[in-house]
Design goal:
Shape: globular
CATH class: Alpha Beta
Largest sheet: 12 strands, mixed
CATH architecture: Alpha-Beta Barrel
CATH topology: TIM Barrel
Strand order of the largest sheet: 9-10-11-8-7-6-5-4-1-12-13-14
CATH superfamily: Aldolase class I
Strand content: 15-25%
Structural class: alpha/beta
Helix content: 25-40%
Bound molecules: S-adenosylmethionine
Number of strands: 14
Number of domains: 1
């Protein structure tokens, strides 16, 4: 490692999220992806770009890489990217965030490439509610993917639900039920204003983590705290007697910017130091240079230096929605 990536506030950047496509085969309410039939726009990061980005990242002390999107499993080169991260660059922790609809089919290749972990987005546990929340998704495909991941030993299985009033808040309990007999982690995430919803409509749809927890406790009684890594965004609990855990990730009501160790690369090769701030730094010119590595390292250093102390969480219009930022 040549220089650690430290921002002006003393935070060390160790985690990189790389969005590999703005396309998705689902149409979730809170997101705004390019449909699965669309082509990746010109300039979408290539395997070669990812190789250079990972070389720079390792030089700068990045320890964990998560591939996301859009839906990263729509990208046929994803196993190659994972192989580069794990086997060429020896990144300690290589993960994917996915809706798992294609996971059962693609897992053998991803696993063979060295995938360490997956996070699965699952906004509903009932088939019909799931279909509505995802704009037509088939939940059985997701169960097949989750079971394949479990069999491959990618545990603990982490299932993430963005809770949106009137869309899937009736799924708080069905989702919690998934942890009764299985050691899965169901994590409830607060809906962030990342889709440019009308501010008032956003506020109406927003459900705080405290409310989610209260509604769950009304039925199951007090949740037991589960020991949690203090730097992790989720606070973990358990329904007494249940095998799995419930997590609450509250970026809006309880921002965890002080512990932020992340930066993002968007699918159009921009470095985004803060999810909730529109400031971005293009790496395209650096990536296209004859000797790209020093220029890409510089781009990382500049972007890390400008990481803001705290992201804006109130409803503001953003230059872009979740589509190409990468969740
Ligand atoms: N398609 C993959 C998936 O479904 O996991 C990866 C991309 S998706 C953008 C990743 C995650 O971003 C979502 O599951 C959700 O957790 C998060 N996300 C997207 N928009 C969000 C929003 N407005 N508020 C909170 N989380 C959001």
């Amino acid at each position: 490692m040549s220089k650690p990536l430290v921002d002006q506030h003393g935070r060390v950047v160790r985690d990189l999220r790389i969005s590999v496509t703005p396309r998705c085969n689902y149409a979730c309410f809170y997101c705004d992806p390019l449909g699965e039939g669309a082509k990746d726009p010109i300039g979408t990061i290539s395997v070669e770009d990812v190789d250079v980005i990972l070389t720079a990242a390792v030089e700068l002390g990045i320890e964990s890489v998560r591939f996301t999107g859009g839906e990263p499993l729509l990208r046929k080169e994803l196993p190659e990217m994972i192989r580069l991260a794990k086997k060429k660059h020896a990144i300690e922790d290589v993960a994917v965030t996915t809706n798992a609809s294609l996971l059962a089919r693609r897992l053998p290749d991803l696993f063979d490439a060295g995938l360490d972990r997956i996070n699965v987005s699952l906004d509903a546990a009932d088939a019909e509610a799931f279909r509505e929340a995802t704009g037509g998704g088939t939940i059985q495909q997701v169960w097949d993917g989750i079971h394949a991941a479990e069999e491959a030993g990618l545990t603990p299985i982490k299932l993430n639900a963005v809770v949106v009033r009137g869309i899937n808040d009736d799924q708080l309990l069905p989702l919690a039920e998934l942890t009764r007999d299985r050691a899965w982690h169901v994590r409830y995430i607060e809906y962030m204003h990342l889709n440019n919803a009308e501010p008032e409509a956003y506020r109406e749809r927003f459900v705080s983590g405290a409310e989610s927890r209260e509604r769950i406790e009304t039925v199951y009684g007090s949740l037991e705290p589960v020991e949690t890594d203090p730097s992790a965004p989720a606070r973990l609990f358990r329904v007494p007697g249940f095998a799995g855990a419930l997590g609450f990730i509250d970026p809006v009501s309880n921002p965890f910017c002080g512990a932020c160790s992340r930066m993002r690369v968007t699918s159009d090769a921009k470095l985004r130091p803060c999810l909730l701030t529109d400031r971005e730094y293009s790496m395209r010119e650096a990536l296209n240079a004859d000797d790209p590595l020093p220029a890409v390292i510089d781009a990382f250093l500049v972007a890390a230096h400008r990481k803001v102390a705290s992201g804006i969480t109130s409803p503001v219009t953003r230059d872009r929605t979740m589509v190409a930022i990468g969740g």
